[in-house]
Design brief:
Elements: H1 39-73, H2 83-114, H3 118-122, H4 129-142, H5 169-179, H6 182-192
Helix pairs in contact: 2-4, 5-6
């Protein structure tokens, strides 16, 4: 079969004409069968067959993993979540709970170490124990004179109920009689009587 002759094109002005592309050599028609393989070709063919068998063995060994991957990946049926999606959701939920519990533990430990009140401890923020400690230090710097707890007032000895008799009532009576103050002595003796107001 003959090839059509190329159509001549006029090159642009100033460029040299391009040489025509060479035609590929036509295969020589042979009526003979292929030649038998020589020694290097036989070795290459045997190596290729060995590689193919090794790959088939690997694929057979990976078949259970492929089935497992298909089961985990699964084809969703409608809106129902797959097992993998359920496991992922549960794992995410557990990680969130773990992070919240860890932060609460760090907050409580730092608050106890720094002597913070529960209200101050609730305001601590951070993502690590060191950040909670730094936040506690900053909070304590804002309120350096905060009292540790409620302060009880000092007792006033002039107020409140007194015992039924002062322990030195007898001494007071004796001192009043010795001084000749009979009126005070009688008033003191009346205090010893039950049911008498002072």
């Amino acid at each position: 079969m003959t090839q059509p002759a190329p159509v001549p094109t006029t090159p642009p002005v100033g460029d040299p004409p391009a040489p025509p592309a060479p035609a590929p050599p036509a295969p020589a028609p042979t009526g003979q069968p292929d030649e038998p393989l020589r020694e290097p070709g036989k070795r290459a063919l045997e190596e290729e067959r060995a590689r193919a068998k090794a790959l088939e063995k690997e694929l057979a060994a990976l078949a259970p993993l492929k089935q497992l991957a298909e089961a985990l990946g699964g084809k969703p049926t409608g809106d129902a979540p797959t097992d993998l999606e359920k496991l992922t959701e549960r794992l995410t939920q557990h990680e969130t709970e773990l992070a919240a519990e860890r932060e609460a533990r760090w907050r409580a430990e730092v608050a106890h170490e720094k002597g913070l009140t529960p209200a101050q401890a609730a305001r601590l923020r951070g993502a690590s124990r060191d950040e909670f400690a730094a936040d506690a230090d900053a909070l304590l710097a804002l309120f350096p004179a905060a009292p540790a707890g409620p302060r009880n007032p000092a007792p006033d000895p002039s107020q409140g109920a007194r015992g039924t008799q002062p322990p030195d009532l007898e001494a007071q009576i004796a001192a009043a009689q010795k001084a000749g103050d009979w009126r005070k002595g009688i008033a003191l003796q009346r205090q010893k009587l039950p049911g008498v107001q002072r």
